Amino acid sequence: MADGGASELVMLITGLLTAGIVASLLVASWGSLAETVGDTQSEIEVNTRTRADLASDSSQVSWNQTGCNLTLYVQNTGEIRLKTDVIGVVVNGTAATINQTQLLDGAPSWSSGEVAELRVCPTGLNLVSGDEIPLTVVVRSVEYKGMSGQYSFSEVIRIG
């Protein structure tokens, strides 16, 4: 009988050690999972607060073929300031170069409600008045809670 008690004690200690190791692994895994969920939640929040829309009259967009200048007005409709130096524009399926970006009314930053004038050159396109073409604009926010949000919108515009 004394022999059986010792082996049961060894089995009990082994079981407790194994349970402790498994519990430690589960706690560590849960911590990583919670951190990942938190990061994803922050990213979704930043992207939700990052918005912009075309403020130009989409049926009369100004175009100068000689100067390769398509003038667009984009308004920050989100809650976070946007970066004026990180904007992407795709005109008729082709990436366009932004020659100039300026905020209207002398605004110091592209805050919510502010409008930016973009002078865009869609290289290789020969546009004439009345052409309807697709336009996509991508904007990026400044850092918010350690992350930068991104938003894109698309519209069909008519050259005026």
How would you describe this structure to a colleague?
This protein has one helix at 2-49; strands spanning 52-54, 62-64, 69-76, 82-91, 94-103, 115-121, 132-144, 147-158. It contains 1 helix and 8 strands. Strands 1, 2, 3, 4, 5, 6, 7 and 8 form an 8-stranded antiparallel β-sheet that branches. The chain has a domain at 50-158: Immunoglobulin-like.
Features:
alpha+beta; 160 residues; elongated; 30% helix; Immunoglobulin-like; eight-stranded antiparallel beta sheet; 8 strands
Q: Could you tell me the strand content as a percent range?
A: 35-45%
Determine the structural class based on helices, strands and strand pairing. Answer: alpha+beta
SSE order: HEEEEEEEE
Task: List how many beta strands DSSP finds.
Answer: 8
Helix content: 25-40%
Straight-line distance between termini: 100 Å
Mean pLDDT: 88
CATH-derived architecture of the domain at 50-158: Sandwich
Number of helices: 1
Regions with pLDDT < 50 over 5+ consecutive residues? none
CATH class division of the domain at 50-158: Mainly Beta
Radius of gyration: 28 Å
Largest sheet: 8 strands, antiparallel
Label the overall shape. Answer: elongated
Fold-level CATH name of the domain at 50-158: Immunoglobulin-like
